[in-house]
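Worked example 2:
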Amino acid sequence: MSTVPPIHREVVVDADPTTAFDIFTGGIGRWWPLAEFGVYGADAAVSFVDGRIVESSTGGEEAVWGSVIRWDPPAAVAFTWHPGGAPERASQVEVTFTATEGGTLVVLEHHGWEAFDDPAAARHEYNRGWPTVLARFRDHVAHQPDGETWVALVHSPGPGAPRTGLLFDDPRFTDHVAFLTRMREAGYLVAAGPLVDRPGEGMTILRLPGADQMERATRLATEDDQSVATGFFTVAVRPWQVMLQA
């Protein structure tokens, strides 16, 4: 076991623990400084996907940064950590979220330096990097717009869709999957799937930060989704007023 001590960093963010946890995890792609601390650079995307943290390049490459080993919202999340490296050479990171006066105290601990050939050098490098990451997170939370905009996107076969067979078998359906993936990586996607009683139709629920975002939601649904832009699907963008959440 390494005798190099863990890194312990703290920051207070202007949000309640639930919001802070959601932004740290579900919204990581909107605030993580990929230009400085990414595998593929500033144009890549990163998100928590199926229990892993995955960075995706614009060319479709993927780098797994780590795997979730504790998921306890909104109190804590912990994960193995090996961005750009092999999973068998992983350290570990734990982040906790505790309500405090003025917001949420976010505490990050990074340990497991024995995974590195030079534990002291690795700790020194990360000790310089984590303050930048947490400062970016704090600033992003502080500039969150007020309110949210929820929309329901109802998709139906468009004029360019096949008249027979399954839509899912058409190569153009991958454009729709790519759109949903981008919405998930941006932290906007709540749920998506087919309507089982209406063959060929489906529904997607998006939650955008900020009030009065219907115009943006419509632009995303009609222009960013190439399956809609090319006529494979048509989409009805419906504003949704959420009155109760779990």
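The chain has a mean pLDDT of 91. The CA atoms of residues 196 and 231 lie 22 Å apart.
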